[in-house]
# Entry
Amino acid sequence: MSQIEAAAIEPKLFRQLLGCFPTGVAIVTTNTADGRPAGLTCNSFSSVSLEPPLVLFSLRKASSLLPTFVEAGTFAINILSQSQDALSGRFASSKIADKFEGVAWRPGPLGTPLIDDCLASFECRVHARHEAGDHEIFIGEVKHMGTGTADHALVFYKGAYMMLAESLRKLVLDGQLGTVDIDEAYRALYGTLLRLACDRATEAEVDAIECAVDRIEQHHSAEALPERIDAMASFFSSIALAGHNEALRLMAQTMTAVLRERMTHVIPAHPRTDIYPLRRKVVQCLRARDADGAVGALDELISTLRKSTGTLAES
Ligand SMILES: Cc1cc2nc3c(=O)[nH]c(=O)nc-3n(C[C@H](O)[C@H](O)[C@H](O)COP(=O)(O)O)c2cc1C
# Structure
């Protein structure tokens, strides 16, 4: 295992390595000063003490909800089941103004919002707050708790919900995931993401996609397989970021895990200089905000790889 010096703790890799620790997912809720329910998706929830019963979660200082949690002095932890992944996406999205619209909930004895069909809930009074870097740690004393459905927990692992990522990984490794299915999924998902990116990507985000294309083309020797896989994964993940849709980004992250798995274990990727211009075309079209052009170039890229090799990966 390679050791990484403290001075070189690069945030992106730090986040990626933290993702190696699987966590549950909760929605932490509270009330605004005028009595409306508020909340966010959170995987920093942890137990702290049995007697007294203490738990914690940490909240980004930049979160618009920080003053609300500070003022309210109470919060509830709602532990999500594996069938509540959509709810997790909803409460993690900055784009949805009223996160509770259409969500079934009721106030608990402390008045904090308890979401229906969760695995368990803990209503807390804030016991202590600690500033820690770019987060604020809220320690809560549990005043009430409840059990809910008997489903399995939603698990977040390596940046994706584990049931989906793990079941897809298993299908890939067992050779059960058809390449036609994968191609269709790529066309649908990245086609949509490219269209969104044409509308929403910043120039810096398009630069990041271009930088991934540069890296793919730099690592053309047969020995540079890990670097090439990494660059290809960054090409797709930077398109996913540029689409600015959290739910699609998570799906894309799962698809990238599939691509990595296939390129590492199923079909080792060799450089294919003939498709270099197609990735360049995707970038050019993104810069020109030409959605049809970008999607067309992606389709051509997938078709070319499929026609000549029968695989989506370069081989
Ligand atoms: C699985 C998952 C776990 C998250 N955990 C935390 C967390 O522990 N603390 C935090 O501040 N944000 C966390 N977030 C991000 C917030 O959910 C998100 O930034 C916030 O709710 C966006 O909504 P807003 O912009 O309306 O505040 C997490 C997101 C996801 C998808």
User: Anything to note?
Assistant: The CA atoms of residues 4 and 290 lie 41 Å apart. Residues 179-200 form the longest helix (22 residues). The longest strand covers residues 120-132. Residues 25, 40-44, 57-60, 63-65, 88, 91-92, 94, 156 surround flavin mononucleotide (CB under 6 Å).
